[in-house]
Amino acid sequence: MVARKCKRLRPEDGTPPVRLRTEPRKESKLLSPAIPRQTSERGVIVSKNGLPRKPLTKRRLKNLILNVLKNPFNMVVLVSLIILFCLIIIPLLTMISSTFTLAQGELRRVQGHVGDFTLYYWKYILASTMSSAVLWQPLKNSFICGFFTVLVSVPLGSVLAWLMIRTDIPGKKVLGLLVTVPYMIPSWTKALAWLAMFRNSTSGANGFLAGLGISVPDWLAYGPIAIVLCMSMHYYAFSYIMVSGALRSINSELEEMGEIQGASKAQILRHITLPLILPSVLSATVMTISKSIGTYGVPANLGNRIGYYTLATKMRNFIDQGPQSVGATVSGKGGRATLMPLGKAKKPLMAFLMVFLFLAMVVPFFVLIMETFQITTGAGYGLDNLTLYNWIGKSGQIAKYTNYEGIFRDPKFFSAFWNTIRLTLIGSIITAICGQFLGYISSRGRGKWYGDLTEQMVFVPYLMSGIAFSTMYFSMFSRPHLGGLIPSLYGTFTLIVLTSVVKHFPFASKSGTANMLSISTELEEAADIAGASFWKRMSSIIVPLAKNGFISGFMLTFISIAKELDLIIIMMTPSTQTMSYLAFTYSQEGYNQMSDAVSVCVLVFILVCYTVANRFGADLNKSM
Fold first, then answer.
1. Which of 217, 437, 517, 555 is the most buried (most CB within 10 A)?
2. Helices marked H in 460-591 — which ranges?
């Protein structure tokens, strides 16, 4: 209990004195510091000097609002919340409402008029004879793939992070880069590499093993096992990046104290290290299961060929040919670090890493690259089966090889390459800038309503799969709304950029929050005392100190957008297609070598950009 401080005021008119009580100082819920409130025993609110407070009139309310609006930080918060509401909440509500609105395509099945309220779509997907095929079986397949992907990738990434950060294993610089590379490689590219290795006659052309005369069963070449292994070799990078960041923040003195007390290495790991990194492991688990359940490229390449559908691939089918509104319904501070000696386990663990990287990266991508030079896949690497046609072939050779020219002579490739550059640069710059502002609001608003609201709204796109999120924007901007205030962006490049930016807000905001938390608020307070304005503090303190974090956040978004397929596949038109979509199109049409060639170009593009950005301070390990 806080003692009440009482005092008496004797008015000049001779009336009985009013006994005042000063309430303890409380933190205000507003953006400005709290002001102590005083009340009389009669319930009259008085000001700080003991006089009765004036009633809240319209003029006073106007002045209070103007005082809030004149504060630049308040305006940044207000504008950010309005933008988030318009870009996230309104499209989400629009998508939900479309599931209860009758569309033109269903008039022959349902009586009524376009725009009428209907439960047809929900009944169709939940309680019809097609429910098992359109929802429950794909849902089951998605959860099976997601569960086993998490079971493999999260422990694998966590162990690799511990080896790289907390042990004395040699060659860390090279091994750390090689372990991070899978994050830069699109997951659908790994599916193509898997097909290049294990493809059999079921899909019309043999892969590497079938070409050697090794019989490859369908359950290994396609289906859940292939999907889980491909996604695990991609999504373990999430666990590696997040857990390695957590391990860097742990002061090794904690582990040393356990060792001094006689604890074994296993006990130290179980009782000290694991509890400290558990939040990061759980975050990686949530991210992995969310991504693996919602991914489209891998199941489409490895599942559709044998009729194995997940929610994402089934949703794409609905968008292409099913009911128009069914698809929308599926959806501690760090310190000194002392490395732990591995002792006799160093050589076996080093051998494990080398074998893992060789089998998971070198072999599949060697086969993928070599397939781009083959005339007939699976027919070996003899000179009579090698050609440069898939890269630079001319139209006169089309009858011998394929129906397309080599990718470097095909105008569609250069159009897709230019669209990829435009999309990644514009989207990454906008997303990175927004992410820093959102991170600034979240970090400076910890424990306050506006900080919590910002984090919650930004987190919404993270909960949705890429194809579900693009469906939401597809539904929102397919026609004008509010009398043309919200225009129709159907088939435009602007819609693709907008969708990519908003979808990557969670990652950009997380990177921005981590960046801003590393900048002490005392620097801003000192500048404020010296008379610097808000924008002066931002330009002179925040921006220079946040430069490296901004570059890392930019590169994180750049890589994600450059390799994106799930998010943009339903929005593609001949004039807006990217390299990812072009490679997927070639794969679906059976032109495996040309699909592989475009995939190699995507990989080289990402690696070159990352190498350049790394020279300017980009570090993926510190951006999540």
1. 555
2. 466-476, 493-503, 505-517, 521-529, 534-537, 543-545, 547-562, 579-588
DSSP string, 506-517: HHHHHHHHHHHH
- In this predicted structure, the answer to whether residue 129 has a pLDDT above a threshold of 70 is yes
Contact between 218 and 182 under an 8 Å Cβ cutoff? The reply is no
The 10 Å CB-count burial string (b at 16+, else e) for 226-261 is bbbbbbbbbbbbbbbbbbbbbbeebbbeebeebbee
Structure confidence by residue, pLDDT tens digits, 349-408 = 888 888 888 877 788 888 888 888 888 777 777 788 888 888 888 776 655 666 678 889
Q: Give the chain's largest Cα–Cα span.
A: 115
Length of the chain: 624
Both structure tokens of 564: 């994106």
Report helix angle 363-371 to 592-614, nearest 10: 120
User: Taking the model in full, what pTM does it have?
Assistant: 0.76
pLDDT in tens, 213-264: 888 888 888 889 999 999 998 888 888 888 887 787 777 777 777 777 777 7
Cα–Cα distance between 385 and 375 in angstroms, integer? 5
Distance from C-alpha of 97 to C-alpha of 187, rounded to nearest angstrom: 33
Q: Element (H or E) spanning 219, and its range?
A: helix 218-221
* Closest by CA position to 192, among listed 293, 292, 313, 300: 300
CA nearest 183: which of 361, 432, 3, 39? 361
The DSSP 8-state label assigned to residue 17 in this structure reads P
Phi, psi of 367 (to 5 degrees): -65, -40
CB 95 within 8 A of CB 328: yes
User: What's the DSSP call for residue 541?
Assistant: I
Quote the CA–CA distance of 80 and 48 in Å, as a whole number: 34
Any residues with CB less than 8 A from the CB of 174 and at least 6 apart, and which?
none
User: Contact 77/83 with Cβ under 8 angstroms?
Assistant: no
* Residue 31, pLDDT score: 42
- pLDDT range class, residue 459, cuts 50, 70, 90: confident
Dihedral of alpha carbons 392, 398, 402, 404, sign: positive
**Which one, of 585, 330, 582, lies nearest residue 471 by Cα?**
330
Q: Structure tokens of 533?
A: 């304005």
- Asked if 596 and 368 touch (Cβ cutoff 8 Å), the reply is yes
Q: To which residue do tokens 């130290």 refer?
A: 268
Average pLDDT, the chain: 79
Distances (CA, A) of 199 to 209, 213, 263, 367, 587: 8, 12, 50, 12, 12
Report yes or no: 190 and 233 within 8 Å, Cβ to Cβ.
yes
Q: What is the C-alpha separation between 500 and 498, in angstroms, rounded?
A: 5
